[in-house]
Write a structure and sequence with these properties.
Layout (H helix, E strand, L loop, with lengths): L6 E4 L2 E4 L2 E4 L1 E6 L3 H14 L4 E6 L4 H13 L6 E4 L4 H12 L3 E5 L13 H9 L3 E5 L1
Helix pairs in contact: 3-4
Length: 138
Amino acid sequence: MLSWPDEKRVGDVLCLGGVHRRMRSLVAVNGTEAAMETLGTAVERSRTGEELTVAVYGEAVEATERRVRDRLTAVDADIRVERLEGDPGATLVERAERRGYDRIVLPGGPSTPLEKVQVGTTAEFVLTNARTTVTLVR
């Protein structure tokens, strides 16, 4: 991610050259329990002013989208839910760049006994190819 000399973050507000705007995050959810927990964490953070978009993908995308919408029903926030088609890693990276997201949020996966985080193929692709900040939630 590029860093500008006059860029700073105050909470979830991005300040660039004296212009303040809310942080915009793209949260990737594939229906796993880890992804649903990541969604919960991201929703809690959004209460401080962060703008969220949830990108749903995976084999059971309709069921996952229903679960996500059910979870968001109780939240008093404007959170967009979108489906990803095609390769999820490439689509997440492309969407984040094209739409100007500040961060991609992904589940971090389990840790090994030596405390090394294990990530799946989608997270690995995003980590190695995204130009924006990537946050792994464990």
